[in-house]
Amino acid sequence: MKGELLLLSSVTFVLQVVCACPEKCLCHSSSSSVDCSQRGLAEIPSGLPPQTLTLHLQDNQIHQLPAFAFRSVPQLTSLNLCNNSLSNLAPGAFHGLQHLQVLNLTQNSLHSLESRLFHSLPHLRELDLSSNNISHLPISLGQRWENLTTFAVQQNQLQQLDRAFLESMPSVKLLFLKENLWKCNCHLLSLKLWLEKFIYKGGIMDSVICASPDTWKGKDLLKIPLELYQPCPFPFPGLQASQLQPLGSAHWPVPSPPESNSAGEPEHAEYELKPKPRPANLRHATATVIITGVVCGIVCLMMLVATIYGCTYAAIAAQYNGGPLAQTEEPTKTEGKELLDSSPA
User: 125 near 100, Cβ under 8 Å?
Assistant: First the structure.
């Protein structure tokens, strides 16, 4: 009897674990999804079914995610944390989600991202960080994201974006970067070159509209000619201008020494875009040489044809005029000979 009771209690416990559903959530066993949206939650609910594949936590009041926040749902493939109050994400917040493919973190209060934050998400395909207060993204967010195809970071406070960050997404096809505070100076040149290559390969993106400097405010980064960029300051501010001359920058502006601001911190000089083009680049020079060569060749050919025509005309004219002259001179010589013969001895 005791054995039967123990077995019954064990089965009941297992059923409770497998079929458990948090009090404020709706669980759909047919789709393995759990809907905890708009429940006024301040933290991740406990008791989530371990077989959950899709978890909806949008429109709550969750302020932070601790490490291993989703350890109870290791099979999760889609996670929606949109429209919460997230401002702090622990480095291991998503640890254990090896199968996660879609992560939505839009409309939160994130200011920056820790470089190891997404290190444990090797199968991530879509990452949406839109509508936050992110002002800086690290050079890399861990290992290369071989499977990431969609990356969205529009409506943030970004001024720059490192090219190495984008190069860690070799499979990305959709890129959303608009409505940031893009500072279109020399530091954004590498981003411009990467985006041009990205579009050439068939990638789809919205736009990068410059917020500063005033010269390019409101302009599309990709429509600013490459020739209008000035070089960035030399990376070693201790070097003097005379030391930069041998490096081939004699006719480039040389950065002035940094000046101290009111807070006592040096302000590094940087060059903004100027609406004055540099001398023609190598492509323009090559095109000029080719065009000049073609024109010279045509002129020389015309001169050769004119010379041949002139010589031919002169020869024909000389031959035409020479025949009658010879006939005229022959009778003259004969008459002279007869006069000599008839003269008295």
Answer: no
